[in-house]
Design a protein that fits this description.
The chain has about 180 residues and is α+β, with helices and mostly antiparallel strands. About 55% of the residues lie in helices and about 10% in strands. The protein starts with 7 loop residues before the first helix and ends in a 13-residue tail after the last helix.
């Protein structure tokens, strides 16, 4: 819901909070207006944009696909055409995270495979197709992941995955 017009400090506070939230995402992340107009970007995204703006814009404009190079897009409720986009893993960090977090959270190999796909923004249908099982099976794995991590939603699980430092300093439970 947009702030009331007579309360400009709310808009400034919301922008500052969004900037802080973007910086907490340990991957390049941007807020975009369709198709690829960048409204806000975290430091990692700004660095990536400075190094290879053309490639980033190409990735943002590309249609969704079922691969790890597709950005994870999260719609902004109440603002059609806007999305939070976490750009794809460019340096293998997701693979490392899955290995470390799987051990820490006590995941089965299949749960780790599901988590890796969910963290990249794949839908249950896409994960099922890529892992060769039913969508219902993926739903069960996602439910088990939510229970093991005490996350309250899929987006909470993804945020926890990407914000867990993977250096042993904290666990998923410490993030709540």
């Amino acid at each position: 819901m947009p702030p009331p017009p007579d309360r400009p400090e709310i808009s400034a506070l919301a922008t500052a909070a969004l900037d802080a939230a973007l910086e907490a995402i340990p991957a390049p992340a941007v807020v975009v207006r369709a198709p690829a107009s960048i409204l806000l970007a975290n430091a990692r995204a700004r660095t990536l944009l400075a190094a290879d703006r053309e490639r980033v814009m190409e990735v943002l404009r590309a249609p969704p696909a079922a691969d790890a190079r597709t950005p994870a897009r999260f719609a902004v409720e109440g603002h059609p055409g806007h999305a939070l986009v976490v750009l794809p893993d460019l340096d293998g960090d997701a693979r490392h995270r899955v290995q470390v977090i799987s051990r820490r959270w006590g995941l089965t190999p299949r749960q780790a495979a599901v988590l890796a796909r969910v963290a990249q923004g794949d839908t249950n249908r896409t994960v099922a197709s890529r892992l060769g099982c039913s969508e219902k099976t993926i739903e069960l794995h996602v439910s088990a992941l939510l229970a093991k991590t005490r996350c309250t939603s899929r987006s909470h699980l993804v945020a926890t995955f990407w914000t867990d430092p993977c250096d042993g300093a904290r666990t998923a439970a410490a993030l709540r």
